[in-house]
Amino acid sequence: MNDSATETSSNETALVHSILAAFEAHDADRLLALCTSDVVFEFPFLSLTVAPDDLDRKVMRTLALMNDLAFSDVTVEPLARPGWHLARYRAQATISTTGKDYRQTYITLVGVDDGRVTHFVEHFNTAAFMAAMRPD
Fold first, then answer.
1. Does position 3 have pLDDT exceeding 80, yes or no?
2. CA torsion sign, 21 to 110 to 74 to 10?
3. DSSP string covering 51-63, please?
4. Residue 81 class from Cβ within 10 Å (0-12 exposed, 13-18 middle, 19+ buried)?
5. Could you give the domains of the chain?
6. 3-state secondary structure string across 74-91
7. pLDDT tens for residues 106-135?
8. What is the spatial distance between Cα 130 and Cα 121, in angstroms, rounded to a whole number?
9. Where would a tag sit more exposed on the chain, N or C end, judged by fewer CB atoms within 10 A?
10. Where are the beta strands (DSSP E) in the chain?
């Protein structure tokens, strides 16, 4: 990899970390500032695709239930296709409505173009998600 490609990959890796930090902070404005205006958020295991205008209603409301959301063990690897990265990370939170611990491992594909996120495709164990969200 030449110096320019290495710098681009490094900048894109930092962008992925910034996106995760915005999710942790439940900060939709900061999150969208890191994305293109037509970014697509996909959650395939929930059969959910979210446009920027629906982010608050469809994603941030759920995140608001996750007290002390923290990501750890974050790795970001560039893929063969330029601008695409694979992120792996763990999450921990307490669900405010159930009091249950939420622990999850995520695999996310992130597309980047011109320093902005174009696609965020997050895969996770929906059974663990539903168990934490469901009252006893």
1. no
2. negative
3. -GGGHIIIIIHHH
4. exposed
5. 3-133 (3.10.450.50)
6. EEEEECCCCCEEEEEEEE
7. 999 999 999 999 999 999 999 999 999 999
8. 19
9. C
10. 35-43, 48-50, 66-78, 84-95, 101-113, 116-124
Residue 66 in this model has a pLDDT that exceeds 80: yes
Q: Residue 68 has which token pair?
A: 């002390």
Angle in degrees, CA 38, 12, 122, rounded to 5: 60
Residue 101 tokens read as 């611990």
Per residue in 34-56, pLDDT tens?
999 999 999 999 999 999 999 99
CA distances from residue 37 to 30, 104, 122, 125 in whole angstroms, order as listed: 13, 29, 19, 29
